[in-house]
Amino acid sequence: MCIRDSYHRVLGNHMSKLLREHIEAFRSIEKDLGYTIEEGLKKVRTSRDFDTYFTSYVCKYHTAFNYYRKASSVLRIDDIRTPILFISAMDDPVIKYYSKHP
Protein backbone atom coordinates (compact mmCIF):
# COMPACT_ATOMS: atom_id res chain seq x y z
CA MET A 1 0.00 0.00 0.00
CA CYS A 2 1.40 3.41 -0.94
CA ILE A 3 1.28 6.53 1.18
CA ARG A 4 -1.53 7.95 -0.96
CA ASP A 5 -3.75 4.95 -0.17
CA SER A 6 -3.06 5.37 3.54
CA TYR A 7 -3.85 9.07 3.34
CA HIS A 8 -7.20 8.45 1.61
CA ARG A 9 -8.14 5.85 4.24
CA VAL A 10 -7.30 8.19 7.11
CA LEU A 11 -9.12 11.10 5.47
CA GLY A 12 -12.17 8.92 4.74
CA ASN A 13 -12.27 7.79 8.37
CA HIS A 14 -11.93 11.36 9.62
CA MET A 15 -14.70 12.67 7.36
CA SER A 16 -16.96 9.77 8.42
CA LYS A 17 -16.29 10.56 12.08
CA LEU A 18 -17.22 14.21 11.54
CA LEU A 19 -20.42 13.20 9.78
CA ARG A 20 -21.34 10.84 12.63
CA GLU A 21 -20.76 13.65 15.14
CA HIS A 22 -23.12 15.95 13.23
CA ILE A 23 -25.45 13.36 11.75
CA GLU A 24 -28.71 15.05 12.75
CA ALA A 25 -27.76 18.20 10.83
CA PHE A 26 -27.54 16.09 7.64
CA ARG A 27 -30.70 13.98 7.97
CA SER A 28 -32.42 16.07 5.31
CA ILE A 29 -30.07 14.78 2.57
CA GLU A 30 -31.22 11.18 3.00
CA LYS A 31 -34.16 11.66 0.63
CA ASP A 32 -31.74 12.74 -2.12
CA LEU A 33 -29.29 9.94 -1.34
CA GLY A 34 -31.82 7.13 -1.47
CA TYR A 35 -30.23 5.47 1.58
CA THR A 36 -29.69 6.37 5.21
CA ILE A 37 -26.54 8.10 6.31
CA GLU A 38 -25.70 5.05 8.42
CA GLU A 39 -25.97 2.80 5.33
CA GLY A 40 -23.64 5.08 3.39
CA LEU A 41 -21.16 5.29 6.26
CA LYS A 42 -20.89 1.49 6.38
CA LYS A 43 -19.57 1.58 2.80
CA VAL A 44 -16.98 4.31 3.35
CA ARG A 45 -13.37 3.13 3.53
CA THR A 46 -11.59 6.01 1.76
CA SER A 47 -12.07 9.68 0.98
CA ARG A 48 -13.20 8.68 -2.53
CA ASP A 49 -15.89 6.47 -0.99
CA PHE A 50 -17.02 9.39 1.17
CA ASP A 51 -17.19 11.61 -1.90
CA THR A 52 -19.10 8.88 -3.77
CA TYR A 53 -21.72 8.38 -1.06
CA PHE A 54 -22.01 11.92 0.33
CA THR A 55 -20.05 14.89 -1.07
CA SER A 56 -21.05 14.41 -4.70
CA TYR A 57 -24.75 14.36 -3.79
CA VAL A 58 -24.64 17.22 -1.31
CA CYS A 59 -22.84 19.36 -3.90
CA LYS A 60 -25.23 18.22 -6.68
CA TYR A 61 -22.60 16.48 -8.81
CA HIS A 62 -24.26 13.03 -8.49
CA THR A 63 -20.99 11.10 -8.84
CA ALA A 64 -17.54 11.47 -7.33
CA PHE A 65 -16.07 11.49 -10.85
CA ASN A 66 -18.20 14.53 -11.82
CA TYR A 67 -17.38 16.21 -8.52
CA TYR A 68 -13.62 15.80 -9.06
CA ARG A 69 -13.83 16.85 -12.70
CA LYS A 70 -16.10 19.89 -12.36
CA ALA A 71 -14.91 21.21 -8.98
CA SER A 72 -11.23 20.88 -9.81
CA SER A 73 -9.10 24.01 -9.65
CA VAL A 74 -7.40 22.89 -12.87
CA LEU A 75 -10.36 24.37 -14.74
CA ARG A 76 -9.58 27.80 -13.31
CA ILE A 77 -5.79 27.89 -13.47
CA ASP A 78 -5.78 29.52 -16.91
CA ASP A 79 -7.87 32.38 -15.46
CA ILE A 80 -5.17 33.36 -12.95
CA ARG A 81 -3.75 36.73 -13.98
CA THR A 82 -1.32 37.27 -11.10
CA PRO A 83 1.96 35.35 -11.23
CA ILE A 84 1.75 32.35 -8.92
CA LEU A 85 4.09 29.63 -7.75
CA PHE A 86 2.74 26.19 -6.84
CA ILE A 87 4.94 24.13 -4.57
CA SER A 88 4.31 20.52 -3.61
CA ALA A 89 6.43 17.63 -2.47
CA MET A 90 7.21 14.77 -4.82
CA ASP A 91 5.71 12.39 -2.24
CA ASP A 92 2.59 14.48 -1.49
CA PRO A 93 -0.24 12.00 -0.85
CA VAL A 94 -2.91 14.29 -2.31
CA ILE A 95 -1.38 16.01 -5.30
CA LYS A 96 0.29 13.79 -7.85
CA TYR A 97 3.79 15.04 -8.57
CA TYR A 98 4.17 16.64 -11.92
CA SER A 99 6.59 19.14 -13.25
CA LYS A 100 6.76 21.18 -16.40
CA HIS A 101 10.50 21.45 -15.92
CA PRO A 102 12.83 18.44 -15.79
What best-fitting shape do the alpha-carbon axes yield? globular
Give the H and E element order.
Answer: HHHHH
Cα distance spanning the termini: 27 Å
Give the overall average pLDDT. Answer: 86
User: Approximately how much helix is present in the residues?
Assistant: 40-55%
Contiguous uncertain segments of 5+ residues: none
What is the radius of gyration computed over CA atoms, rounded to a whole number of angstroms? 16 Å
Name the structural class.
Answer: mainly alpha
How many runs of DSSP E, i.e. beta strands? 0
Strand content: under 5%
Major sheet: none
Number of helices: 5
Describe the structure.
The chain is mainly alpha-helical and 102 residues long. Helices cover 49% and strands 0% of the residues. The chain has helices at 3-21, 30-33, 37-43, 47-58, 64-71. It is globular, with a radius of gyration of 16 Å. The two termini are 27 Å apart. The mean pLDDT is 86.
Record keyword descriptors for this entry.
102 residues; mainly alpha; 5 helices; 0% strand; globular
Short description:
By secondary structure, this protein is mainly α. It has helices spanning about 5-20, 30-35, 35-45, 45-60, 65-70.
